[in-house]
Design goal:
Layout: H1 4-19, H2 37-56, H3 64-82, H4 99-116
Helix pairs in contact: 1-2, 1-4, 2-3, 2-4, 3-4
Length: 117
């Protein structure tokens, strides 16, 4: 059975491959099995947060950007949970994220929603 974290990671890799300009860093597209434990835990936690929001309803009214912002903010919370002193790029605000990452985060939300139908 596929876990929520695996669904999240699958969507991340697909988004990176679709939106990243050029060749992405190898660490961006490492399969689930090669993903560090903290990142697996974070992917699972963010999946659950997105899924809970979707189950509560009303997310069909969110814009694509709002969906992406939600994923990004949930991820930042996980970074702070797992990394005591993260690099600023790991906890950048939405406006500071590159376009490819914003698009990928929105794709993740939409992918999770699609798996719940």
């Amino acid at each position: 059975m596929v876990t929520g974290g695996e669904i999240f990671r699958e969507a991340w890799i697909a988004g990176v491959r679709k939106h990243f300009p050029g060749e992405p860093k190898a660490s961006y597209i490492v399969p689930w099995e090669g993903t560090p434990h903290w990142e697996r835990a974070s992917a699972g936690a963010v999946y659950e947060q997105v899924a809970l929001l979707i189950r509560q309803g009303g997310t069909d009214k969110l814009t694509r950007e709002q969906k992406g912002r939600f994923v990004a903010l949930c991820w930042i919370a996980q970074i702070y949970h797992h990394i005591p002193d993260p690099k600023p790029a790991y906890v950048a605000n939405w406006e500071q994220l590159p376009d490819w990452q914003q698009e990928t985060d929105a794709d993740i939300f939409e992918h999770i929603a699609a798996t719940m139908d």
